[in-house]
Design goal:
Helix content: 25-40%
Radius of gyration: 17 Å
Number of domains: 1
Largest sheet: 8 strands, mixed
Strand order of the largest sheet: 3-2-1-4-5-6-7-8
Number of strands: 8
Order of helices and strands: EHEHEHEEHHHEHEHEH
Oligomer: single chain
Structural class: alpha/beta
Length: 231
């Protein structure tokens, strides 16, 4: 794996791109507004980065990160992602995305929706439950005693192994939560959501201080997760 494609280059996408370039990967960035709008980010990242259309980023990536608002999932290119591992960073915000009945009644999850849209890709949920600035701040080399862990979920074991290797390269351990259906355990408003990595005032926005999260703490919070209907 040498090239990371990014469909969406906002806060999470640009942070992943910075971590990937620092780890020696090439990145192909894209967004809905066109490659020319990414000139500043490409200039910051240097030679390993270039801007493209979403379809081109999907085609170029050995591994592709989809980090767009949930309502934009139908626009994610299908054909160039066929057979590829796709990391899904999505969260469901009804006020932004509109109400989605299958998510409101919890008969599916956000990443399962993307998997249904990309039936011949291998979707792995990840990067969705950490504030983007903390994602940059907490990255540590392999073996560091203060390294943090990030949750993943997916239906394909090989795909999860590929994502685990990528996480390791950019500074994180991966914690396998299970199949995509278990991704609800670290979705919005659960105990394992973004507040888990916040060591500052929980009412402050933006959050000010990151804290390390190890596997034991993450496992505890995942086990404490409650369905929206039970909150």
């Amino acid at each position: 794996m040498t090239t990371i494609g990014l469909i969406g280059s906002g806060n999470i996408g640009s942070t992943v791109a910075r971590l990937a370039v620092a780890a020696g990967f090439e990145v192909v960035l894209s967004n809905s507004r066109g490659p020319e709008t990414l000139a500043d980010l490409v200039a910051e990242l240097g030679d390993p980065a270039r801007a493209a259309t979403p379809a081109e980023a999907a085609e170029a990536g050995d591994l592709v990160v989809v980090t767009v608002p949930l309502k934009a999932v139908p626009e994610v290119p299908v054909e160039p992602l066929r057979g590829k591992v796709v990391i899904d960073t999505n969260n469901y915000y009804p006020q932004r995305d509109g109400n989605i009945a299958a998510l409101d009644d919890e008969s599916t999850t956000t990443s399962e929706l993307l998997q249904a849209h990309l039936p011949e890709s291998q979707v792995v949920k990840g990067f969705n439950n950490i504030y983007f600035a903390f994602l940059g701040d907490l990255a540590r080399p392999t073996g560091s005693p203060d390294r943090s862990v990030l949750a993943i979920a997916g239906d394909d074991a090989a795909a999860k192994q590929a994502v685990t290797r990528f996480f390791d390269a950019i500074g994180y351990d991966a914690y396998d939560v299970g199949p995509l259906a278990e991704g609800w355990r670290f979705q919005r408003d659960t105990a394992a959501y973004a507040g888990l990595y916040n060591d500052g005032d929980p009412s402050a926005w933006p959050p000010e201080k990151a804290r390390r999260v190890d596997a034991d703490l993450l496992a505890e919070k995942l086990a404490a997760a409650q369905r929206y209907r039970d909150l």
